[in-house]
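dumping this here before i forget
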Amino acid sequence: MVSRRRHDERSIRRRGPTREPKRRILIVCEGQETERGYFKGFQHEVRNPRVHVEVAGETGEPLQVVQVAVRRKDEAASEARQQRDENLRWDEVWGVFDVDEHARLDAARQLARKNGIDLAISNPCFELWALLHFQEQQAHIERDKAKAALQRHLPGYDKALDFARLHPGYSEAVRRAQRLDEDAERQEKPGRNPTTGVYRLTESIRQGGGP
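structure:
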């Protein structure tokens, strides 16, 4: 069976218009509410017709997140082989989690590298990424202080993030996060506090391309 969405040598000879396949992105998050809510809101606001995004219902600590991501990736690959349809595979699978004080963080990173799972890690926490929508944050910051700073911009914030309120500062958040990454690389301390890789995932969704 020839895939209806991707092209091979036979499909090139078909007549009439064809539609490019949507890029399939799966996101597995550590948090049940904050991260999942953010990405669902982001997807709704961006509405990129070239991308299909699914936020997995399973959550857990970093190693569990990566294990779920690997399993879901393998299940999709198996289904693609059975159905002879390569479009059932995930083009990108992302694990999203915080640094905090997780004991198995290195194991999560190693498993992700081994299985081609992309990671969007925030140090110290996802609230840093949200905070960058409103302000610069170049100094080391702990989770509680990041949350308190975010609450000053979003009164009443607890765990749920309304992306509609963050949307106006999105471009600045990307620029600030990129600068933090660049500074960390120059100091040979990638992933230091404060850094967040969430912008790589959101930009992939927004632009419809790879990380």
